[in-house]
């Protein structure tokens, strides 16, 4: 597994014993202490089947007090812990490296309140994103984020990874949308930052430390989040471009002419489309006539059905006249729109089906963003297939390299080249997925030594015994 290749187990951590199990049963009851081999095995492996731990225990607390008791005990005994949400993370952060105790948040899935004047949702961390979407939509609002993993990922996991996703272009980062958090620190202290205020400049805004810290500083237990109003008209177009320069120009044109109604701008190269058609059931290429090089999904969301549609149609026509778009189609009904989205959201699923996937999630200026895909293709030749897709409107490329099985020679062709290239562009080696286990030792490609040292000081202050998500996020050398 991933553990043996990178690190030794830190011998300072205790090994779980029967007294520990008895204590956990005393606070959580039999149902909250999972030792069943099959269930534990599922929690030990990540969504890609790439990272595998050897934990023997999953704890399923139902309240913040239970989380606090678990952590207080683990801290005293120095038992290492992995917080786990929906286990859809893509960087090996959500599964143990060795025998860490898994603390699953799935049992904390209650909606606490909804302020339907201001659109403020307060809920527990283990709520599944899609369930929250359905709930707020019934109230006339939407979640400020959406991602392909919505059916499984938890809002607590989204916050812990600072997930970006498909609505980022319109509603921005969770650093802006999360209003308050309740977090349990490593020693069991419950930190109540669960405000629902829009404005609050009293001292340091501590919640931001936990947004994107991937379970390394505390366990998120409750959340309040701002939800935008649900607007009445949504339109989705699927377009093709003959070259990458046209995709860039199209983005600028969309920003200018669709303006405030633009709600998504996603791109994928034809390798992604081919893969999606091959591996996803029931999807159809909306533009099958000719093999284009690039495809773009544009979504608009506004409040005036006829003018929004007219705007999108005019944009499409002009873009075709200007030669930016080779062909395009606007979804005529919900099922066509969901087919467009299924293709885009299904690329990760399709990649995994090939066998092995090397995932890179890069922030790079839009002008340079596709250069790395082409360079990687030249480096790898026929040894693997290189896919480029992502959130173009946010300058976020998903560079995926797929092959039938994991191979160290392929990896050596990719790394450190991909990190060095990104660093030379002053890009980010993790735009939205986090560092997890995969990139803990690579943080220096995107952050200065001084910044990494300060992060290590914060980690030591909040988790002095380093029980929370060990081996992840920060390099071992600074801890
Ligand atoms: P997990 O995978 O369980 O955990 C992720 C990290 O957060 C781990 O380090 C874990 O320890 C920590 N954690 C989880 N819950 C808590 C908690 N309550 N308190 C403290 N720490 C916690 N990501 C994007 O940003 N944008 C996308 O568009 C996107 N699309 C995806 C599509 C697919 C098909 C898949 C499989 C993944 C996608 N992801 C995307 C990645 C992933 O879904 C997100 O990172 C998501 O936010 C993880 O949520 P989760 O509940 O599954 O967390
Ligand atoms: C996406 O945008 O599809 C995701 O972040 C998931 C992935 O890169 O696989
Ligand atoms: Zn993404």
UniProtKB/TrEMBL annotation:
Domain of life of the source: Eukaryota
Catalytic reactions on record: (R)-2-hydroxyglutarate + A = 2-oxoglutarate + AH2
Similarity comment: family membership: Belongs to the FAD-binding oxidoreductase/transferase type 4 family.
Coiled-coil features, chain-numbered ranges: none
GO MF annotations, alphabetized: (R)-2-hydroxyglutarate dehydrogenase activity; FAD binding
Alphabetically ordered keywords of this record: FAD, Flavoprotein, Oxidoreductase
Essential cofactor(s): FAD
GO cellular component, one term: mitochondrion
Gene3D superfamilies: 3.30.465.10, 3.30.70.2190, 3.30.70.2740, Uridine Diphospho-n-acetylenolpyruvylglucosamine Reductase, domain 2, Vanillyl-alcohol Oxidase, Chain A, domain 4
Name this polypeptide is given: Probable D-2-hydroxyglutarate dehydrogenase, mitochondrial
EC number of this enzyme: 1.1.99.39
Gene: LOC100273608
Ranges of residues in domain FAD-binding PCMH-type: 51-230
């Amino acid at each position: 597994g991933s553990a043996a290749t990178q690190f030794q187990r830190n011998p300072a951590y205790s090994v779980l014993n029967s007294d520990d199990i008895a204590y956990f049963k005393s606070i959580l009851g039999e149902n909250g202490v999972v030792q069943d081999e099959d269930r534990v095995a599922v929690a030990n492996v990540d969504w890609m089947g790439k990272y595998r731990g050897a934990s023997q225990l999953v704890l399923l607390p139902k309240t913040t007090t239970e989380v606090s008791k678990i952590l207080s005990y683990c801290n005293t005994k120095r038992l290492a812990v992995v917080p786990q949400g929906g286990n859809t993370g893509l960087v090996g952060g959500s599964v143990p490296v060795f025998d860490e105790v898994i603390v699953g948040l799935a049992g904390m899935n209650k909606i606490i309140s909804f302020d339907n004047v201001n659109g403020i949702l307060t809920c527990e961390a283990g709520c599944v994103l899609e369930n929250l979407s359905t709930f707020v939509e019934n109230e006339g609002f939407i979640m400020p984020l959406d991602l392909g993993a919505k059916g499984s990922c938890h809002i607590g996991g989204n916050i812990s990874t600072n997930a970006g996703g498909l609505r980022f272009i319109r509603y921005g980062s969770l650093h802006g949308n999360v209003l308050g958090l309740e977090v349990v620190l490593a020693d069991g202290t419950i930190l109540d930052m669960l405000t629902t205020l829009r404005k609050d400049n009293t001292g340091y805004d501590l919640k931001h430390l936990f947004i994107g810290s991937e379970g390394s500083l505390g366990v998120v237990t409750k959340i309040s989040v701002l939800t935008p109003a649900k607007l009445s008209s949504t339109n989705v177009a699927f377009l093709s471009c003959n070259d990458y320069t046209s995709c860039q120009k199209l983005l600028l044109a969309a920003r200018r002419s669709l303006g405030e109604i633009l709600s998504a701008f996603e791109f994928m190269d034809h390798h992604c489309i081919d893969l999606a058609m091959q591996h996803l059931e029931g999807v159809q290429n909306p533009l099958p006539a000719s093999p284009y090089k690039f495809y773009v999904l544009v979504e608009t969301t506004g409040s005036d059905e006829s003018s929004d549609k007219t705007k999108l149609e005019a944009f499409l026509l002009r873009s075709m006249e200007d030669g930016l778009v080779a062909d395009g189609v606007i979804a005529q009904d919900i099922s066509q729109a969901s087919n467009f989205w299924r293709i885009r959201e299904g690329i990760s699923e399709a990649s995994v089906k090939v066998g092995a996937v090397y995932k890179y999630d890069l922030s790079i200026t839009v002008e340079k963003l596709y250069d790395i895909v082409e360079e990687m293709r030249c480096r790898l030749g026929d040894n693997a297939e290189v896919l480029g897709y992502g959130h173009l409107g946010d300058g976020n490329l998903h560079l995926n390299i797929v092959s039938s099985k994991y191979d160290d020679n392929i990896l050596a062709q990719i790394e450190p080249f991909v990190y060095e290239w990104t660093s030379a562009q002053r890009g980010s080696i993790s735009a939205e997925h986090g560092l997890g286990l995969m990139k803990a030792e690579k943080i220096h490609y995107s952050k200065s030594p001084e910044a990494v040292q300060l992060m290590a000081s914060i980690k030591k202050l909040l988790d002095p015994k380093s029980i929370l998500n060990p081996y992840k996020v920060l390099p071992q050398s600074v801890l």
